[in-house]
Amino acid sequence: MAFSVLDLAAVAQGHTPTDTFRNSLSLAQHAEKLGYTRLWVAEHHNMAGVASSAPPVLIGYLAGGTSTLRVGSGGIMLPNHAPLVVAEQLGTLASLYPGRIDLGLGRAPGTDQTTARAIRGARFGQEQDFGRDIKQLQTYFSAANSTSSVRAIPGEGLEIPIYILGSSTDSAYLAAAMGLPYAFASHFAPGQLLAALNIYRQNFRPSAALAAPYVIACVNVIAADTDEEANYLSTTLKQMMLGVVTGQRQLMQPPVADMSQLWAPDVEQYVMQMLAASFIGGPTTLKDDLGSFLALTQANELMATSHIYSHEARLHSYKLLAGVMREIGQERAVGELAM
């Protein structure tokens, strides 16, 4: 059972982006030792509490500090960029770190509309065709493009795996039609997860990149030695989502003893709906809950993001999760052999 990391590069209260990047590298090295498959970073802009505005730069930093871990984007927001530029940037990374770079692509702006206008300039407002842009990227990466008048150097001829990211059913249809692996953002949009996975699998067309459907489910995981400690640590995640819902985003906040002082019951209900794919607890609780989730979704890979204020507690959370995932994988293997 593959298990991976989504690092949102959150800036904690009392700290700086420099601290965040150092912690990201520490997490990547920790994940590599624990046997995680990959670590992805996401593209966000104009958010004081999120430092990953330049994923290719951060990917290079993390890949340079590790040796076997796959590192990539989860994702690069393709409408913000010309496909050629993305091909050149990821081609550079794949040339520096062969066989270790992933390219996850999303269609959202990763920011507000005012900032999206600043990013895209004259292209803002133009009709976007996500599928067309992905095909253009594939062309730039292909060896067959060597006779074209526009080439991605480096990038051409490199096998850089492309993943389609999504939080709705639209992306499921596209990933299926293109025969590409599909990563669903259930860590903040769990409502359409099962419908999207069903659409993806039913409509999947094998391609040169992928013979059968491959699903990555991204979820929130807050693990600690006890359920009580994990629930306490999870109040940092809840405060973050509260900021998303109310539009009052902050730097990553330390945990609190009582969330009832921070939200009204109706807001709490809305936040908890967004956090439905969140797994919080000690190892026994996590094993039970994650085992049920994986049985329900039949995901090929679990990607965990852990919004925890203390870096040491976050490292410990990923250590506990690795142990739980190995146990789930071993039990699944034994069950398959017994059939």
Assign a percent range to the helix content.
40-55%
Summed up, the helix count is 11
Mean pLDDT: 94
Backbone structural class:
alpha/beta
Which overall shape is indicated by the principal axes computed on the Cα atoms? Answer: globular
Q: Strand order within the widest sheet?
A: 1-2-3-4-5-6-7-9
- Runs in which pLDDT lies below 50 for 5 or more consecutive residues are none
- Beta content comes to 5-15%
User: What is the gyration radius calculated from CA atoms?
Assistant: 20 Å
Structure description:
It is a single chain. With 339 residues, this protein is an alpha/beta fold. It is built from eleven helices and nine strands. Strands 1-2-3-4-5-6-7-9 form an eight-stranded parallel barrel, surrounded by eight helices. The chain is globular. The mean pLDDT is 94.
Summarize the helices and strands and which ones pair or pack.
Elements (H helix, E strand, L loop, with lengths): L1 E6 L9 H18 L3 E4 L13 H10 L5 E8 L5 H14 L4 E6 L6 H8 L9 H12 L20 E5 L2 H10 L3 E3 L8 H11 L11 E9 L3 H20 L18 H10 L3 E4 L1 H15 L3 E5 L5 H28 L1
Parallel strand pairs: 1-2, 1-9, 2-3, 3-4, 4-5, 5-6, 6-7, 7-8, 7-9
Helix pairs in contact: 1-11, 3-5, 6-7, 8-9, 10-11
Descriptors:
8-stranded parallel beta barrel; 339 residues; alpha/beta
Give a summary of the structure in a few sentences:
The protein is an alpha/beta fold and 339 residues long. The chain has eleven helices and nine strands.
